[in-house]
Design goal:
Strand order of the largest sheet: 4-3-2-1-5-6
Number of strands: 28
CATH superfamily of the largest domain: Creatinase/methionine aminopeptidase superfamily
Number of helices: 19
CATH class of the largest domain: Alpha Beta
Distance between the termini: 50 Å
Helix content: 25-40%
CATH architecture of the largest domain: Alpha-Beta Complex
Radius of gyration: 24 Å
Shape: globular
Strand content: 15-25%
Largest sheet: 6 strands, mixed
C-alpha cells in the first residue's frame, strides 16, 4: 500500500500547485466503459480498487470513496485506511457535494464522465458556490508514467448467420431521415450496429470506436491500424477515419441539428454545443434495439448456454474430486473452469473475471481471486459466478455448492432454500405486458424479507449477444427503471444472501422474456443449464409447484447436456439431477 499512498500524495501535490481543492476520478474511461482496459484503469492505479463502480474524491486533507452495495466490503479491503467509504445508495457523490462542500474547486477529466453526470454535478455544486474544473492538461494522466500500452490487434466482422441482420438493415432503422447528424459515442453500440467485434476490452469483444450517421454518410472513427482489409472491401459505404479525428470533426460543425446519446462524455457534448449548433440529447437508438434479440440471436444464445453447461458439469465434477487432494485454490479453480470452456471451438473469452470464492470470501459480492488466493476448504460453501463469450452468445451463471463430507447446517440449508425460492418466483412468473423490472423485484426478496434479510444488489441485469455481460436498458432491481420488459430481452435472475466475513449464497440463471400462453401476458424461459445443489435444498420448505419446477428444470438440464457428455460425466449429472 506504500506505492498507492505515494501516488495519491503526488496527485495531492499537483492539486496544491494549481490551487485546486479536490480531484474527482471514477472507474470509467473516455469510452464510459463499465470494464475499461488495463491502460485506462485510472482509479485502480491510483487507489488499488479493482471493482467496476467506484468514485474517489481526493483533497489534501480528506479522501472519500463512493460505491454500490456490491463493492462495500471489497473497497474496505482494497483501499488505504485514509478513505471514508460511502454506500452510494445512501450517500452519493451528488448529495455529498451538495451537503458537505462549500466554495471548493473540484477538478475532473470531463472526457471520462457522461453528460448527465457532469450536468448534475455542476447543478449540485453551484448551490454552495462550488466550482467544477475540467482537467484540460490531463494532470492525472501525466502522473501515470508506467502506463500499459494499448493492444494493437485488428477487429473482425461477425457473420450474418450469428447476427440475424445485416449492418445495412440496422443502419436503415436508425439513420436520420432529415438533415440531422446522429452521433453514436458508445463502442458497444457501434459494434452491434456494424456487426463487428474486437479485442480492446478484456472479456468484452469491443473495438473502441465512434460513429457519425447522416442521411447520406456513415463515418466510422477507429484506430486505423486495427481495420482489417476485408472490412474495407465489404463495407464500401463506410468512411473510415482515425479515432483521433473525432474531436476535430465534431468541433467543426456549424449551425447543425445534432442528435447525441445521453451517455456521451460531457467533453464532447460541450464541444458540440459550440458554433450555434442545435444539440438534442436522446436515448442511444441502438440500446433498445440490441436488447431485443432476434430469432437468430436467441438460437445462438441457447447454443452458448448448452456449451456452457457442458463446461460447468466437467468443472464441478473435477472440483468435487480434487479440491482436497490437490489443494485447489480459488484462483486455480477459476483457471480450470476457463480451460473447460476453452474446449469448445466457439469459445472466445470469459464474459467477466470469474468470481471464485469460498467461505468468507463469498460474502464479498464481486470478489476476484488473485494468484495467491486461499485454498478451498472442506465443509464450506463455494460460490462460483462466471460466464463465457461464445461466437453469437454471452453467458453468466452462478452456483453455490457445499463441498465436504459433512452435511451442511440447517441454517445454511434454510438460507439457500429461501434464495432458491426467490429465484423460482422470478423463473416461473407470468406477468402482464407493460411490466417493468422494478415491479417484480420484490418477488425474489419476499422470503428473505420475511426474516429481516436482504441482498445488496439487483436481482437481474440485461445481457448482450456476444457483447457486454451487463447490458441495458432492462433490469430487475429495487431502483426505478421505466424500461418495459419485452419479448427477446435476456436478463439474469440472481437473488442471493451474504453473511459478512462468513459466507455468501447466490443462484443465477439467464432468462429470456417471451410471450405467455395467456393473452396479454409474458413469462421467462430459463436459458442456463446446470443443476442446483440438492444437498443445500431443504425440500420441505418448497411447495408442490416449486418442487415441480426444480424437477422439471433438472430433467431439462440432463436431457440437454447428457448427449454431449461421456459416461462418467453422465453418471455424475444423473445424481445431481435426481427428483426431490
Amino acid at each position: 500500500m506504500k506505492e498507492i499512498k505515494e501516488r495519491i500524495d503526488k496527485l495531492i501535490h499537483q492539486l496544491k500547485l494549481r490551487k485546486i481543492d479536490f480531484y474527482l476520478i471514477s472507474t470509467s474511461d473516455e469510452f464510459l466503459n463499465e470494464y475499461p482496459p488495463n491502460y485506462n484503469m485510472r482509479l485502480k492505479w491510483l487507489t488499488n480498487f479493482s471493482g467496476s463502480n467506484g468514485i474517489a474524491l481526493i483533497s489534501r486533507s480528506n479522501k472519500y470513496f463512493f460505491t454500490d452495495g456490491r463493492y462495500i466490503l471489497q473497497s474496505k479491503k482494497q483501499l488505504i485506511k485514509d478513505f471514508k467509504i460511502f454506500d452510494s445508495a445512501k450517500v452519493n457523490i451528488f448529495s455529498f457535494v451538495l451537503n458537505y462542500l462549500k466554495k471548493k474547486q473540484i477538478m475532473l477529466d470531463m472526457r471520462c464522465f457522461s453528460t448527465n453526470f457532469v450536468k448534475t454535478l455542476i447543478s449540485k455544486a453551484k448551490e454552495n458556490r462550488n466550482v467544477i474544473v475540467n482537467d484540460k492538461k490531463k494532470l492525472f494522466d501525466n502522473l501515470w508514467k508506467d502506463r500499459p500500452k494499448e493492444l494493437d490487434k485488428k477487429f473482425f466482422m461477425l457473420e450474418e448467420r450469428f447476427t440475424g441482420q445485416s449492418f445495412n438493415e440496422k443502419v436503415n432503422r436508425i439513420r436520420p431521415k432529415d438533415k440531422s447528424i446522429l452521433v453514436i459515442s458508445s463502442p458497444e453500440s457501434v459494434c452491434w450496429l456494424l456487426n463487428i467485434r474486437g479485442y480492446d476490452v478484456e472479456n468484452t469483444p469491443l473495438i473502441f470506436s465512434r460513429l457519425i450517421l447522416t442521411k447520406q454518410k456513415i463515418e466510422l472513427f477507429v484506430n486505423k491500424n486495427k481495420v482489417p482489409n476485408e472490412f474495407i472491401n465489404k463495407y464500401k459505404k463506410v468512411l473510415i477515419f482515425d479515432i483521433n479525428k473525432f474531436e476535430t470533426t465534431i468541433s467543426k460543425y456549424l449551425n447543425k441539428n445534432i442528435l447525441v446519446d445521453k451517455q456521451i462524455s460531457y467533453f464532447f457534448y460541450d464541444l458540440l454545443n459550440n458554433n450555434n449548433n442545435n444539440v438534442k440529447l436522446i436515448d442511444d437508438p441502438c440500446i433498445k434495439l440490441k436488447s431485443l434479440k432476434n430469432s437468430v440471436e436467441i438460437k445462438y444464445s441457447k447454443q452458448a448456454h448448452l456449451n456452457d453447461g457442458i463446461a460447468l458439469v466437467k468443472f464441478f465434477k473435477w472440483l468435487g474430486e480434487n479440491y482436497l487432494k490437490k489443494k485447489v485454490t480459488e484462483f486455480l479453480a477459476a483457471k480450470v473452469l476457463e480451460d473447460f470452456r476453452k474446449e469448445n471451438k466457439d469459445f472466445f473469452s470469459p464474459s467477466f473475471g470469474t468470481i471464485s470464492a469460498s467461505g468468507p470470501n463469498a460474502s464479498i459480492i464481486h470478489y476476484q481471486p488473485e494468484q495467491n488466493s486461499p485454498v478451498i476448504k472442506e465443509d464450506n460453501l463455494y460460490l462460483c459466478d462466471s460466464g463465457g463469450q461464445y461466437y453469437g452468445g454471452t453467458t453468466d451463471v452462478t452456483r453455490t455448492v457445499f463441498l465436504g463430507k459433512k452435511k451442511p447446517s440447517n441454517i445454511i440449508k434454510e438460507l439457500y432454500t429461501k434464495v432458491l425460492i426467490g429465484h423460482i418466483n422470478i423463473a416461473t412468473l407470468k406477468f402482464p405486458v407493460g411490466t417493468k423490472g422494478f415491479q417484480i423485484d420484490s418477488l425474489a426478496r419476499y422470503n428473505l424479507w420475511n426474516c429481516g434479510l436482504d441482498y445488496n444488489h439487483g436481482t437481474g441485469h440485461g445481457v448482450g449477444s456476444f457483447l457486454g455481460v451487463h447490458e441495458g436498458p432492462q433490469s430487475i432491481s429495487k431502483n426505478i427503471n421505466n424500461t418495459v420488459l419485452e419479448p427477446g430481452m435476456i436478463l439474469s435472475n440472481e437473488p442471493g444472501y451474504y453473511k459478512d466475513k462468513m459466507f455468501g449464497i447466490r443462484i443465477e440463471n439467464l432468462v429470456l422474456v417471451k410471450k405467455s400462453s395467456f393473452k396479454g401476458f409474458l413469462e421467462f424461459e430459463t436459458l442456463s443449464l446446470f443443476p442446483y445443489d440438492l444437498n443445500l435444498i431443504k425440500s420441505e420448505m418448497l411447495n408442490k409447484d416449486q418442487k415441480k419446477f426444480v424437477n422439471s428444470y433438472h430433467s431439462k438440464v440432463y436431457k440437454s447436456l447428457s448427449p454431449f457428455l461421456k459416461k462418467n460425466y453422465n453418471l455424475w449429472l444423473k445424481k445431481k439431477t435426481k427428483l426431490i
